[in-house]
Fold:
Amino acid sequence: GENVEQHPSTLSVQEGDSAVIKCTYSDSASNYFPWYKQELGKGPQLIIDIRSNVGEKKDQRIAVTLNKTAKHFSLHITETQPEDSAVYFCAASKNNFNKFYFGSGTKLNVKP
Amino acid sequence: DSGVTQTPKHLITATGQRVTLRCSPRSGDLSVYWYQQSLDQGLQFLIQYYNGEERAKGNILERFSAQQFPDLHSELNLSSLELGDSALYFCASSVEGNSGNTIYFGEGSWLTVV
Structure:
């Protein structure tokens, strides 16, 4: 089955700096890659997603890039703010069953 | 608020017992997913239903079962509970059940087995 690896497991940045989280996947058939933000005690919330026919997608301070050849995708957060502090999960899905495989999560800490 | 409703939010029960977790998907969503999140395992896919039918199965134990009812709400039944079943259980839903459909998570049900 699919294997999604996520790095780093923890990331600490100063407010205003950029943060980058990287994920790799193993199955070239995966074609949809969402990113979720999970705040303490809450459910994961979709923040951005990308499909395999697109190389990059941006939404304000958040961007995601996809390299299908290398089978990796990354989340970029610019001008980080303390409220960006949370755990971020990447995921990949394939086939007709919308079965998602999640990375192990990155705990982002933005220091004021 | 994602629109996915889960009850109960917290549950404490003893080993060997059985519990039922309930999920109401977003209005209009036909597919429901169950995930387990524990500290050392991340988000583990358990099972998916689409319009009342089981669609995909993940790492769901035989002691666990689920179903989706005609009104599209779903229940996850956990029986013969063990200490290791303590975790956060999430329900998610999507409009369809096919690849590329965004899934939206509920707030989760915290299960503590003592």
Remarks:
- Chain A touches chain B at residues 31-32, 34, 36, 42-46, 49, 51, 89, 93-105 (CB under 8 Å).
- The longest strand of chain A covers residues 86-94.
